[in-house]
Automatic annotation (TrEMBL), chains A, B:
Domain Glycosyl-hydrolase 97 N-terminal, residue spans: 28-293
Residue spans crossing the bilayer: none
Annotated Glycosyl-hydrolase 97 C-terminal oligomerisation domain residues: 602-702
SUPFAM superfamilies reported in the protein's UniProt record: (Trans)glycosidases (SSF51445)
Subunit comment: Monomer.
Cofactor dependence: Ca(2+)
Signal peptide as annotated in the record: 1-25
Glycosyl-hydrolase 97 catalytic domain: residues covered: 311-507
Name the record gives this protein: Glycosyl-hydrolase 97 C-terminal, oligomerisation
Length: 716, 716
């Protein structure tokens, strides 16, 4: 299935400059002229700066890399050539937020030679109308083939003490609440920001992860991230908080090296997106555009998924993944037919059938089942190498009978591969595990990497693990399997090339609501940070926000109203969405649940109606497979009023608007379940104003209606 | 193919002692009473000592382990139980030095409990008539399940400044010449002993590897090694040279830990073999006896192998493994059909066919071909991850045609899997690589691990790699493949359990003769050290000892006479033996070559006629499949006379003895090719005296003859 794809594109090559080596500076503008890049050598050091509408947004910043043994690719260069070009192509993603995507940039490639070593390095800049992407390239050459990177030294010199929404730089987890602060305050807030995690490795008092969202004093939004992280180590940013300069900080391997390279090769792209409008950050397709076109010839087997799952009851502690209460097990030696079940194992035939029935009844594609396989008794935090085999079900999970039952109901089960970070073990079993999926009618897998990586010393975001995650995705494609990888490296747009990588978690998701709670404004930040690189399997849809109702020993509160949970299906983009709560709870709120049933997971158009990081986001999206639209608003811890226009609707048409909003007096803490559902008749001239409570929001479905069908409904 | 085997055994359990906890000491004797073990707790520390014929050979030495986080399993114990037993069983190896092996020992198991932690640990001692084996065991228990070993602290307190034949303790290589010195001299000789290697990690000025061979002042031979290295890290010995106490030193992982354990589990066995007769050390089967019985149900596909190979001409530099002279390649991207061949690629169709013809003509089973596959241009010392795919031949190696050609000649090709230390890459390809072998009629593979291990930070002898080597052997069995692993951990008797592990190199072999030379006495030491744990693929049979004859740029001399090369087929035990030189050279010495053709690789009886480590070894072995005997003598750098009796021959029978010995004036350096072949008529009363030159030796085939067949021959 993996063959190079022929793209339709118009490529215009304009050789504008061929400069002799004594010329030190190059300029590049974005197509619309708003951005200006200047590249130069400052005493032999490659340097760039970026202006937006003639104002500096990146001050002169140096580029380059440090190699092992005190070598470098950061100084003593001369320019031997440079080329510019323009590229303008519209391409069609297999699934996404829009039907088509325009990839339109001006490009500058500077070819450098290091004077004493004769090493060659190119830097390729692409200036889009929303910002800059650039990467290092190492052509085939005589004086550089195998090299080991000690640290990348890409600078991003900020022009002021911007406000930032950040999580601590960490080699192993992103599962932190965001802190919003000025850059100068990061150092003082770092200790508090690093909350406990079973696998974590914060590395600096001023280190942060990407995507990093910022806002200048003048109100310019600036976002830093990377695209196309392949064959390299994930980048963090380390802040010099005297000068407000970020420098790239890569994730090390077990012996402290950052990446092993063989020329010809390149680094990932470093991206800078900027706009006066926060919504432009969200709507930028730069990350995707910087990735390679789709690698598979046949993509017909890749389809977005709506699912429910035997999961939340284990997350809350109501049930267990494990079948028995044994202190430890050895796969193949422990005889589960002889152990006493603990009576709390959720992944059993009866329950799974009930979930299959519910999925079939309400139109869900798949049922995730966690805890179906031997090994859960001692999987967590033991650094256990042979922890799962991904093949052997517990005695109460009849994989064949359930396959047939699901099939008879038009539903699939979703596979679960928790690796416990034991990467070699997963790879040893991977072919058989994927074949097992094929044999039992599974076509999608949620994988997990909870706990420190094995081989010990490696990190979740190092080159070693990054290589593994892509290996798992590519091998999955050989079996027609789609992947949703949790605890893996945060995405960087690889879904363009490998569209069976449907989603990742790779941030603090809904499960943490049951582990003490997420910040109320968490989902008003994630699209600006985590989701710049790709979809997130946030697993929303929690209606019973008082976790003690499920597990009296767990006093966590999900910090949300029900209306906001519905909104998340629109605001937390993903082609794979879960209705995460228990069927018995949904059955109590079927009117609200209707929105989750109606909302699609593949879109032809996406708009941002309102957005301020940390405060609120309102998205409007058009279903790819109909003329229906959906709106969602997520609100922070303040009471706010949202006022939106429906001018995106098709003129001359009428729509049934079903508005699911916070009820009067609703509040995530004191009254989360108060919601109101109202139906209206709307068209492109309509507008609406909705009060959102702390932790609240609203969701609106807009279904195209026949003329006259809606008379009698209130008109907006 | 892997099922537990039912053994025939007689097991006598005698509970001799059930001691209350205040009794601190236990005794155990070997069946013949020569050895006496004393175990005790010295202020809560487990301690043992070993006497031989009432003389201490191991002074009181402590036992135990250090765990991470300052925990320990080495002190503060009490004895809660002890049991003794006797075991006597004779079993049949699939192949070996003898037809049957007797496993006869007295056993003591002490059960210990650590007073403050309540952790349980057993120590199992088995006293054989040739020495002691013991290991730590960790039963299933409440207070110890997952634990990480920081260092094992097993002591072996020597009773004097013994003479030792040693190589430097090293986490990554054993490819050193041996040094013979007193223990007190190790420190001063270490620097010289550590010669360069592409992958090495010596760790101490007084660290040495096992098996360690020693000789006390009084002439007692003492050998220290380990048996059944499974799921653990390889042991070295670190010498406290003030007190002459060795302490175990395990191989670390990337973060400095030694082993990750899950109870119930156990360590490998630590072995102490001792005798006044050097030959008893060589003939001991303790290592095998301490391993588990064979794991496979069907072993009919496992057969010893005699082979030749397209190899030595690359080792000498006459030809190349690589097809082209490219600075670097990328598998799947480099198009070998378009590159210019370097004209020195040995693994080509014409040459391989010639080797197949030679093998068929002279009765060899297999032809090894190295350099058959893409990737050799840049495989060495680049820390290259995706270095080989084990599947894709070079353009001049037609794998299908050669399979068919070999088959038509009744010969098999031997596969070669050089991994370049890139373990994950090998495992990713392993199933396909083994299937490729099956599809192309290969049933044996020489594997290699040249260069630092990838994942970086791991070592060749750490728990991680030890796990991998066994994984490769067990998976090979699924495909009916036999394994000969070079640069892997030195063997510890696993061939009993997994008899498709035919051999390892895992020491300085014949190839080093072309890299500058081995010590002249090297092969008089290896059987006492490297081969205590298992066979060695030493690849002897070099007749052209002046390497410059093959490659004018390589002035190395193989430090041997031709006669000694023949002897090595008897003295360097292996079920897999190579005639390593080039066919064109053998064609010049077909009379000498006849011995190599005649010598078998599977034996029913083995005797040591003469032996002194570092000086000489003379073995006599009986062919398993006939009544023929073979004798071999390897000699050091001194002129010596060997005098042996043929009293091992069957009484009343006559044998044709063909004696291949050093010619007059032969010398490894000045006259290596001088040899004499004489035929005699011998019987069990015969004897012979042969002069051996520096680097010389002799080989004798003794073929049962019919009465009267040999008249006319000189009688011995």
């Amino acid at each position: 299935m993996q063959k190079p794809m022929k793209t339709m594109m118009r490529y215009i090559l304009i050789i504008l400059l061929f400069l002799p080596s004594f010329v030190m500076a190059q300029d590049l503008n974005s197509p619309n002229g708003n951005f200006e890049l200047k590249f130069s050598l400052e005493e032999g050091k490659p340097t760039y700066q970026l202006n937006y509408k003639q104002i500096a947004i990146i001050k002169p910043s140096s580029l380059g890399l440090g190699l092992v043994e005190e070598e470098n690719l950061s100084e003593n260069f001369e320019i031997i050539a440079s080329e510019t070009a323009t590229f303008d192509e519209t391409w069609t993603p297999v699934w996404g937020e829009t039907s088509t995507i325009r990839n339109y940039y001006n490009e500058l490639v500077v070819s450098l030679k290091q004077i004493e070593t004769n090493r060659l390095m190119n830097i390729r800049f692409r200036l889009f109308n929303e910002g800059l992407g650039f990467r290092y390239e190492f052509p085939q050459q005589e004086h550089l083939t195998y090299f080991t990177i000690k640290e990348e030294k890409t600078q991003f010199a900020m022009t002021g003490d911007h406000k930032a929404w950040w999580i601590a730089g960490d080699y192993d987890t992103q599962e932190y609440d965001y802190t919003s602060s000025k850059l100068s305050e990061i150092r003082g807030l770092m200790e508090k920001a690093v909350t406990p995690n079973v696998s974590q490795a914060p590395f600096s008092e001023t280190g942060v992860q990407t995507a990093l969202m910022m806002k200048s004093e003048k109100g310019l939004y600036i976002n830093l991230h990377e695209a196309a992280l392949v064959g390299y180590s994930a980048m963090h940013l380390e802040l010099d908080d005297e000068n407000m300069v970020f420098t790239s900080h890569l994730t090390p391997d077990a012996i402290g090296n950052k990446a092993y390279m063989q020329a010809p090769t390149q680094t990932p792209w470093r991206t800078i997106i900027a706009s006066e409008k926060a919504g432009d950050i969200l709507l930028s397709n730069m990350t995707l555009n910087l990735n390679e076109p789709v690698a598979y010839e046949d993509v017909s087997w890749i389809k977005p998924v709506k699912y429910i799952g035997v999961w939340w009851e284990m997350i809350t502690g109501k049930s267990s993944w494990a079948y028995a209460d044994l202190p430890s097990v050895k796969l193949g030696e422990t005889d589960y037919t002889k152990v006493e079940p603990n009576g709390k194992h959720a992944a059993n035939n009866t329950k799974v059938k009930r979930y299959i029935d519910f999925a079939a009844e309400h139109g869900f594609d798949q049922v995730l089942v966690e805890g179906w396989n031997e090994g859960w008794e001692d999987w967590f935090d033991k650094s256990k190498d042979y922890v799962f085999d991904f093949l052997t079900p517990y005695p109460d999970f009849d994989v064949e009978a359930l396959r047939d039952y699901a099939k008879s109901k038009g539903v699939k089960l979703m596979m679960h591969h928790e690796t416990s970070g034991s990467i070699r073990n997963y790879e040893r079993h991977m072919d058989k595990a994927y074949q097992f999926m094929v044999d039992h009618n599974y076509n999608s897998v949620k994988s997990g990497y909870v706990g420190d990586i094995i081989p010990r010393g490696e990190h979740h975001y190092g080159q070693w693990a990054v290589n593994h995650y892509l290996y798992a995705v590519k091998k999955a494609a050989e079996y027609g399997v789609m992947v949703n990888a949790h605890e893996a490296v945060r995405p960087t747009g690889l879904r363009r090339t490998y569209p069976n990588l449907l989603a990742n978690e790779s941030a603090r998701g809904t499960e943490y609501e049951a582990f003490g709670g997420n910040n109320v404004d968490h989902t008003t930040i994630l699209p600006f940070t985590r989701q710049i690189g790709g979809p997130m399997d946030y697993t929303p849809g929690i209606f019973e926000t008082d976790v003690s109702q499920y597990n009296p020993n767990n006093g966590s509160r999900v910090r949300t109203t029900i209306a906001r949970q519905l909104a998340l299906y629109v605001t937390m983009y993903s082609p794979l969405q879960m209705a995460a709560d228990l069927p018995e709870t949904y059955n109590k709120y079927l009117d609200a649940f209707q929105f989750i049933k109606d909302v699609p997971v593949d879109w032809s158009e996406t708009l941002v109606l309102e957005a301020e990081p940390g405060d609120f986001i309102t998205y409007a999206r058009k279903d790819k497979n109909s003329n229906n639209w959906f709106v969602g608003r997520t609100n922070d811890e303040e009471e706010r009023t949202s006022a939106i226009y429906f001018d995106f609707l098709e003129k001359g048409k009428e729509y049934l608007a079903i508005v699911y909003k916070d009820g009067k007096g609703a509040h995530w803490e004191t009254n989360p379940k108060a919601y109101e559902i109202n139906k209206y008749r709307v068209n492109s001239k309509s507008k609406i104003s909705i009060d959102c409570v702390p932790g609240g929001g609203y969701a609106i479905s807009l279904m195209e209606a026949e003329k006259g069908e809606l008379k009698g409904l209130k008109k907006l």
